Amino acid sequence: MKEENQYGKEREMNEDQIDFRALLFKYIIHWPWFVGAVLLCFVGAWFYLHWATPIYNISATVLIKDEKKGGGAGLSSELEDMGLSGLMTSSKNIDNELEVLRSKTLVKEVVNQLGLYISYTDEDEFPAKGLYKTSPVQVNLTPQEAEKLNSPMVVEITLQPKGSMDVNVTVDEKGYQKHFEKLPAIFPTDEGTLTFFLQPADSITLRDGTKISQKEQRERRIIATINKPMHVARAYCKNLSVEPTSKTTSVAVISLKNSSLQRGQDFIDQLLEMYNRNTNNDKNEIAQKTAEFIDERIGIISKELGSTEANLESFKRDAGITDLTSEAQIALAGNAEYEKKSVENRTQISLVNDLRKYLRGNEYEVLPSNVGLQDAALIGAIERYNEMLMERKRLLRTSTESNPTIVNLDTSIRAMKANVQATLEGTLQGLMITKESLDREASRYSRRISNAPGQERAYVSIARQQEIKAGLYLMLLQKREENAIALAATANNAKIIDEAIADDIPISPKRSMIYLIALILGVGIPVGIIYLIELTKFKIEGRADVEKLTSVPVVGDIPLTDEKNDKNGSIAVFENKNNLMSETFRNIRTNLQFMLDNDQKVILVTSTVSGEGKSFVSSNLAISLSLLGKKVVIVGLDIRKPGLNKVFQLSNKERGITQYLSNPETDLMELVQSSDVNKNLFILPGGTVPPNPTELLARNGLDRAIETLKKNFDYVILDTAPIGMVTDTLLIGRVADLSVYVCRADYTHKAEYTLINELSFEKKLPNLCTVINGVDLKKRKYGYYYGYGKYGKHYGYGKRYGYGYGYGQDTKR
């Protein structure tokens, strides 16, 4: 008992270390699994990398010109010196421009421009690969028609070597088929009109770089998929990144993730082109409106000037006028000056009235600003009003009219419009007052001229009108040229610093990451499989399992062996033989001797169920003890179905301990039989099977029998019935000094150790220990128990000692 307690303490102290080693060893012994899984995963990773479509990161660096940060200061100052500052747009915010660059509206324009809503796949390749600008046939469907599609339109094209083509169109569960003898061709459908064109080249470049003539083409199968442009734009927006390089600069990096280098570069180039085009249109809108207004006025003045010059020519021809008197010239000069001022006044009145009409008839439209107005306050009000309208247009690119910012801006625009209207009214009133004053002065000079000859007065009147119209016409021509300069001076808003270029290495799939994942899977899959296998193992396999289930000491592990034994295969220990089984039972024998005190001789051997090798262990243990020169008797107390008769091939099966238990007057020693195995080994078989085995074992006769045997023998081995089936062994336990509980690897269920622990805790069997029988050393996890590999590879006792006990079907291994 002392040794058992010490053994238990040592086991608890080393429990963590033993568990760790066992856990590690449990996986290491399956190293071929890991090697095979890792190799398989690496091969799979190689194939994946070989066939997967690489994704590249294409990026360009651009400078966004922002007048707030000095991007357009030089141009603004130059135009300001020319008096054209009102034609330029207001400063822009960099963040707003970045939002415009990544907006779905702009991306959709790029998708439509490049035809990216139509994708091509070469089905002759394995795996099928996408085509960009290399498809032998181009399919066209207008963006407007494509936007109306409810689902993608799949166009299967089979191009024949001679140029004919078979087309199969599938969309919305509807199908269209048609054959074309030559291309180009038109194919009307309910969803839109498809047009087909051959690649505009003498030869077509394949994916591997080879070129084939269109006349020599083999039959090819191409699939064109037409999606909604907005759906494609959303997909591109997810892969598009527009980020500033820092907060202190207006430089941005535009990046796109795409499987085609050329397509990615084309997309970024077209994105910047469309952005610059749109921003230039916005900046030129005021100048364009002004140009339209000036052209309209030039047309009117040109007609009036032509009419005046014709009248002057006709008057001179009819009247024969060649010169005027000096006095009349002086009067006429003064009158002409006031008449000129009066004309300029009427021109200003006309301009103001035109602007009033334009303002009332156009909602949220910019006003012409540089048309010859002389009122600085009015010009300033118009410029501020135009700036607010341009800001509203920029915000509407990325927002809706319900946005609070735009709602507030609309309120400000309406207020500013009212201010412009009020300024126009005030300016008009001032001009009308000036007109009355000029008319009075002109009338005074007219009265002075009235004394001049009528012909001269008529001539001067016509000449004055011609001079005034000519001056106004020249002024409008000058303004038109200034406006044209402003249009020509508009620069792109985004300046390309670094052109679109792809990284040398694809961002996906990443080779190192794929191989790392393959390595993790190669290790993880076997670990998972082994773990699941361990979870489904309900039977013990060896010492490691037993030590996890119970604190009962393990005194030995008996391996399977294919060594030749006696005729029935149950005797494995022989005199003068130094084999594995002999060494195993010597080890068990030694451990049991350490657990027994000097006066303790009785060893009980039992198991949970039949077939675990109880009789095999008890018989060979008895033989091993007898080889020490000790007198040993093995008693067959499994009286329900005695097994020693078969083990030792006893002929007189009726004689046995049951005769003594039934009749205590019988001489017990006469029932003991000698053994042919060893002269020191004796057998007391079970005898005839009694009708009341439990009652016989409960009587005092068993105690007297054991005392008698202890006096005549050095060791008494009790081969008892399986304790999990009957209670006989519990009754026998009172006469034993030590109990050996036999378990069998790959046979005994782990749940049965609940019974063993209960027996140990409640001390129903004295000095309990356990022996593991039938350990398969082919399972390398148990190979470290033994150092006797020279005795053989496989051990097969389990195939020979699995006798039944009458409690169920015989078990064989």
Automatic annotation (TrEMBL):
Stretches assigned to the Polysaccharide chain length determinant N-terminal domain: 16-114
Localisation per UniProt entry: Cell inner membrane
Catalysed reaction, written as an equation: L-tyrosyl-[protein] + ATP = O-phospho-L-tyrosyl-[protein] + ADP + H(+)
Primary site of residence: membrane
Residue stretches spanning the membrane: 31-51, 513-533
Family: Belongs to the CpsD/CapB family. Belongs to the etk/wzc family.
The protein's name in its UniProt record: non-specific protein-tyrosine kinase
Lineage, highest ranks first: Bacteria, Pseudomonadati, Bacteroidota, Bacteroidia, Bacteroidales
